[in-house]
Amino acid sequence: MTGLSPNALLLGALEQLGSFGLLFFRTMKNLFRKPREHQTLLQEIEEIGVRSLPVVSLTAAFGGLVFGFQMYIGFHRYIGPGSEAYGGPIITLSLAKELIPILVGLMISGRVGSSMAAEIGTMKITEQIDALHSLGANPIRYLVVPRTLAAFFMMPCLVLYGDVIGILTAYFYNVILMGVNGVIYVQNTLTYLEIWDIATGLIKACVFGVVIATVGCWQGMETEGGAEGVGRATTRTVVIASISILILNFFISKLLPATLKGG
Amino acid sequence: MIRISDVQKSFGPKIVLRGVNLTVEKGETMVVIGQSGSGKSVLLKHLIGLLKPDSGKIYVGDIEITHLRDDELMRVTRKFGLLFQGAALFDSLTVAGNVRFGLERYARLSEEEMQERVAESLGLVGLSGAECLMPFELSGGMKKRVGLARAIAYRPEIMLYDEPSTGIDPIRADAINELINKLKRDLGITSVVITHDMVSSYKIADRIAMLYDGRIIEVGTPEEIRGSKNAFIQQFIHGLADGPIKDW
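^ Those are the sequences you sent over. The predicted structure of the assembly is below.
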């Protein structure tokens, strides 16, 4: 038990929400202002995009394999042998719209969000953020904006890459390993899959990218109390970003139309 | 040049500044002394806008800075160079990258001029040839000197020093004192120095102010401070455990 009254807990939560909202507002305000920190932006694109490729490859590959495996079992058991080839569109749609954006979002919040919080948190406790200010660099523009932009642009790239890997490994499991009819599998997939299904996943990825970067930077900026504080900030970043991704995923799925085709 | 008027600041229930009043004239070196934790660094951070007072005003020249927006404040802070207590070097940049950081934002120099200025600033602090080192390769004292080179590289009008001699051997500390005096003599830089090192204070100060219990309790020349009748000041400058200051 923390010993805090419900009112104090509510006030604390509102204070946190306010501090996040303020950072988000200041980030948006500084998004297109000069001077732009191109060097930092390029470094972050490399950090978030290029260096995340191995972990995204593994996650998407095994996500695709296990999903292909369960779909195979499902069709085989409930509809009957031979029906597995009709699982192609369902596997592809589920991977592209839900599973890959969520898996990539969770992995990136663990890999990148926590590192942002640790880096900025360390800068905060060693007065490097104050030094930025004293040397004419707006900390929001120098630290938060490049990370947010890089995450916004790189997350959809990673999700698209993850889609390709996941869809290919699901195909590999069903068609190559289990001998499902590849022509029907691919034909069905191409017939029923829409570009919009892929786009939905990419829209989610953009939102998740902004969430991961702003939560990581926010927790970093709020860091207090030395190494222990940095540890707390990284943990909180992963927890807050992951929960936010799962909640937002549901609401974005509900808000976006399931299909762009009429009827 | 700088006028601090009735500045008050609290962090939660802890009152740090209870109404500080102080004026720093153009071209002078003002040394603020006081116990550890007495709020000296907090006061310094108010001068550059890193902290906002709960009440009171701070003037830099004719500009009152406590209510400025970020971009307006940036234009004023351009006048300041700040040496941090722990140097606050950017871990991801080399020594040269650190020193040229402010230059790239504050000074309009060609690449060649910038490299010359970096070398000159490092030379002034006795670190010629250290351009390519990373901060983790430096000792505490070297970091401090790089921090000083970074702060003076873009030729600020006002220098703020937070404990410049802490963590440096006495010979280097004296060299830093000489440098502070040289900057004042040659470039007419106004300085505010936060320290509890009385040897340095007497060497560099035009005036000394003592901060105690959130207020400036006395301001005077080094001679006036030495001869002060104030028991708090006498206890502090002589480093005595016995005296009216009990909270140590």
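Chain A touches chain B at residues 35, 122-123, 126-128, 130-131, 133-138 (CB under 8 Å). Chain A has one domain: 56-254.

Shout if you want it in another format.
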